[in-house]
């Protein structure tokens, strides 16, 4: 990604390489027309506007807005105790430059707000949320990558609202497993980290400091101290990956004992970002859900508008958590509506 910050980590040479590798012909450089199944309604409603106003007053950031998520109206507009939000900790400026992401970048972002864990917890405890996702930009400028900030926020939330389910969608912390342990042992309910794409496209899609193996290592490590913790990851489709490559990453994730998988359509946030190579039909996403179920994922959400923090997925994960807590075997029926 080339953000609005003062640092652009992608050189012209790498951009040229990307065009050559991901766009082999002039035809593929054209922007594809948006199919009807990925169009969404304009966000509205009292819950939506109330949550947005509260965020502004408290100077809190959400990935829902920063990443231009198409589901923001549905997630924020839920009824009391069903609405969901993904809070972005550690500021709104990332030290990395992934080419699919619209979050702005800088080599040295402003220092984290030391009061953010408390302010976030106080705000969340007053909202009508049943499930909250905490995520962050990458903070390679911090010695611990921001892991202590994550852990403290979880503890503050649980102290005020113990029944609220908390998911942490973390960076890779540069492969620092002590940082992963710190977050995993903070009292959260779900540990999420996204592999984003297939192994073969990693270096063209993600920042060079990220890697496929490093992401798998983070997901494996999250269960190291807490074997019963739920782990979750997400894959974007439509970047030029093949079916065999998608199949392989799903198998690799199961070998890493990942519990939950979401697959969604990549959407180009601006003209400066990677172009969509293909808009997959909903039937293709249905196929990948069936593959995920057959491979043994406890929960697979697959659809054009599904995102790693999609509200519908959290409904199923709530049930998964309740069944794990009761010791019952988990089995879900039905499918997500596209």
Care to describe what's here?
The chain has helices at 12-22, 46-58, 63-66, 72-76, 116-126, 147-160, 177-184, 202-205, 212-222, 243-255, 282-295, 311-326; strands spanning 61-62, 83-89, 93-94, 104-105, 129-136, 165-169, 190-192, 230-237, 260-265, 299-302. The chain is an alpha/beta fold and 338 residues long. It has a single domain (43-324), classed as Aldolase class I (TIM Barrel, Alpha-Beta Barrel). It has an eight-stranded mixed sheet with strand order 1-2-5-6-7-8-9-10, with helices on both faces. The protein has a two-stranded parallel sheet with strand order 3-4. Strand 9 (260-265), helix 11 (282-295) and strand 10 (299-302) form a beta-alpha-beta unit. Helix 5 packs parallel to helix 6 (147-160) and helix 6 runs parallel beside helix 7 (177-184). The longest helix is centred in the C-terminal third of the chain and has 16 residues, at 311-326. The model is unreliable at 1-28 and 328-338 (pLDDT under 50). Its cofactor is [4Fe-4S] cluster. It is an enzyme of class 2 (transferase).
Rounded to an integer, what's the Rg over CA atoms? 19 Å
CATH-assigned homologous superfamily:
Aldolase class I
**Number of spatially distinct domains:** 1
According to CATH, the fold-level topology is TIM Barrel
Report the span from N to C terminus: 28 Å
Q: Give the C-level CATH assignment.
A: Alpha Beta
Pathway: Protein modification; protein lipoylation via endogenous pathway; protein N(6)-(lipoyl)lysine from octanoyl-[acyl-carrier-protein]: step 2/2
Main location: mitochondrion
Family: Belongs to the radical SAM superfamily. Lipoyl synthase family.
EC number: 2.8.1.8
């Amino acid at each position: 990604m080339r953000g609005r910050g003062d640092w652009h980590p992608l050189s012209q040479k790498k951009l040229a390489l990307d065009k050559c590798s991901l766009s082999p012909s002039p035809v593929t450089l054209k922007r594809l027309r948006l199919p009807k199944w990925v169009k969404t309604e304009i966000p509205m409603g009292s819950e939506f506007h109330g949550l947005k106003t509260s965020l502004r007053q408290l100077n809190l950031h959400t990935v829902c807005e920063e990443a231009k998520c198409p589901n923001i109206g549905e997630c924020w507009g839920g009824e009391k105790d069903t609405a969901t939000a993904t809070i972005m900790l550690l500021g709104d400026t990332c030290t990395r430059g992934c080419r699919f992401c619209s979050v702005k970048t800088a080599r040295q972002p402003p220092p984290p707000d030391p009061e953010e864990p408390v302010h976030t917890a106080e705000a969340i405890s007053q909202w009508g949320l049943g499930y909250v996702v905490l995520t962050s930009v990458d903070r390679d400028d911090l010695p611990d990558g921001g892991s202590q900030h994550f852990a403290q926020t979880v503890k503050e939330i649980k102290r005020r609202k113990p029944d609220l389910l908390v998911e942490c969608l973390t960076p890779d912390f540069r492969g620092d497993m002590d940082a992963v342990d710190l977050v995993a042992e903070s009292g959260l309910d779900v540990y999420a980290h996204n592999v984003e794409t297939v192994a073969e496209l990693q270096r063209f899609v993600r920042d060079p400091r990220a890697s496929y193996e490093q992401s798998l290592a983070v997901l494996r490590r999250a269960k190291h101290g807490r074997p019963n913790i739920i782990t979750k990851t997400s894959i974007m489709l439509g970047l030029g990956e093949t079916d065999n490559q998608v199949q392989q990453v799903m198998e690799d994730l199961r070998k890493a004992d990942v519990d939950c998988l979401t697959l969604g359509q990549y959407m180009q946030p601006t003209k400066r970002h990677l172009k969509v190579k293909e808009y997959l039909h909903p039937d293709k996403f249905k196929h990948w859900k069936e593959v995920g179920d057959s491979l043994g994922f406890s929960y697979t959400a697959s659809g054009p508008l599904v995102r790693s923090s999609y509200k519908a997925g959290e409904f199923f994960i709530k049930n998964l958590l309740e069944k794990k807590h009761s010791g019952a075997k988990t089995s879900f029926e039905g499918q997500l509506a596209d």
